[in-house]
């Protein structure tokens, strides 16, 4: 967090603070949002601090949203966490507040907000919020409820500290969270749990997986398959990481069909930079983990072609 003092000053000034995150939230989006809200509430008990956004899918056990109305934004401070670009912000009224702050760790392709604090070296937005709380000189409070959310967010975005975005600073922030006495093993277990139906989908995903000569993997999960397995769109995310366990895979794409017939695109990589591909298709994200949208099968094929070429170029560089 590079702008601690500026952000703290605004938090102290406003009686109402509304925190948003991105649509289709993951643990980091919910963890950084809920952790920040909890830390502000604990430090300023008389303030109204709200979590805004749409459906959280099967992560309702982790964090739920408040009932936020348009009227709540009058004379309010709005903070958006873990959201690189404005179209991905969950909640339509975020622009109606008096002031807007962006806190994020994705590449800063869409600069917005009166204060825009972006740190692409952070493993997660939850890591940034943890650092922010610790730097607040006690104005924000790191209690166990806050620590659970932030630890879950860090675990989610680092793949339980397996991904290369895990740094010494990440582990230092995780240590501070563990020192509150949270049950870290229970948090990690719950985040990695899948239902029996989701496990069946993972098996189907391996059957559907194609791997080409450069190590590009591709899976398409249709509405028909999700209906057959009684799986929701949100639950289908359980299959996204499945190909990463295979030695032959260098980078992969998972297409998940949405209700309107378009496809949610999940791009993942073990080294090849893939977020530039996502940006070409209404998406973005991290260099090794990004999301996008494909309108039809033709765009899906285009994404596969671009990913194939990116892997080939990366291999030639080595």
Automatic annotation (TrEMBL):
Domain of life: Bacteria
DDH domain residues: 17-154
Pfam families, A to Z: DHH, DHHA1
Entry EC no(s): 3.1.3.7
MF-aspect GO terms: 3'(2'),5'-bisphosphate nucleotidase activity
Keyword Hydrolase: yes
Signal peptide annotation: none
UniProt keyword annotations, A-Z: Hydrolase
Domain DHHA1: 228-312
Coiled-coil region list: none
Listed PANTHER family: BIFUNCTIONAL OLIGORIBONUCLEASE AND PAP PHOSPHATASE NRNA
UniProt protein name: Bifunctional oligoribonuclease/PAP phosphatase NrnA
Organism this protein belongs to: Holzapfeliella saturejae
């Amino acid at each position: 967090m590079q702008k601690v003092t500026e952000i703290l000053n605004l938090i102290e000034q406003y009686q109402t603070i509304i925190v948003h995150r991105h649509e289709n939230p993951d643990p980091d989006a919910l963890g950084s949002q809920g952790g920040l809200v909890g830390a502000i509430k604990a430090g300023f008990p008389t303030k109204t601090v709200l979590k805004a956004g749409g459906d959280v899918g099967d992560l309702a056990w982790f964090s739920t949203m408040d009932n936020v109305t348009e009227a709540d934004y009058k004379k309010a401070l709005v903070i958006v966490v873990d959201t690189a670009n404005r179209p991905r912000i969950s909640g339509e009224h975020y622009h109606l507040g008096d002031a807007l702050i962006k806190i994020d760790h994705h590449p800063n392709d869409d600069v917005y907000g009166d204060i825009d604090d972006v740190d692409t070296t952070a493993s997660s937005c939850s890591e940034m919020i943890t650092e922010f709380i610790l730097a607040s000189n006690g104005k924000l409070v790191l209690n166990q409820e806050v620590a659970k959310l932030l630890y879950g967010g860090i675990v989610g975005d680092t793949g339980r500290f397996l991904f290369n975005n895990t740094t010494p600073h990440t582990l230092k922030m995780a240590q501070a969270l563990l020192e509150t006495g949270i049950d870290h093993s229970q948090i990690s277990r719950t985040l990695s749990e899948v239902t029996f139906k989701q496990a069946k989908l993972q098996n189907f995903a391996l059957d559907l997986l194609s791997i080409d000569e450069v190590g590009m993997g591709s899976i398409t999960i249709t509405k028909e398959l999700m209906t057959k397995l009684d799986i929701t769109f949100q639950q289908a995310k359980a299959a996204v990481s499945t190909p990463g366990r295979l030695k032959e895979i260098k980078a992969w794409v998972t297409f998940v069909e949405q209700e309107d017939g378009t496809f949610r695109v999940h791009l993942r990589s073990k080294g090849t930079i893939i977020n530039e591909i996502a940006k070409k298709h209404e998406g973005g994200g991290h260099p090794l983990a990004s999301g996008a949208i494909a309108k039809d099968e033709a765009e899906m094929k285009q994404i596969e072609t671009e990913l194939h070429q990116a892997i080939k170029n990366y291999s030639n560089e080595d």
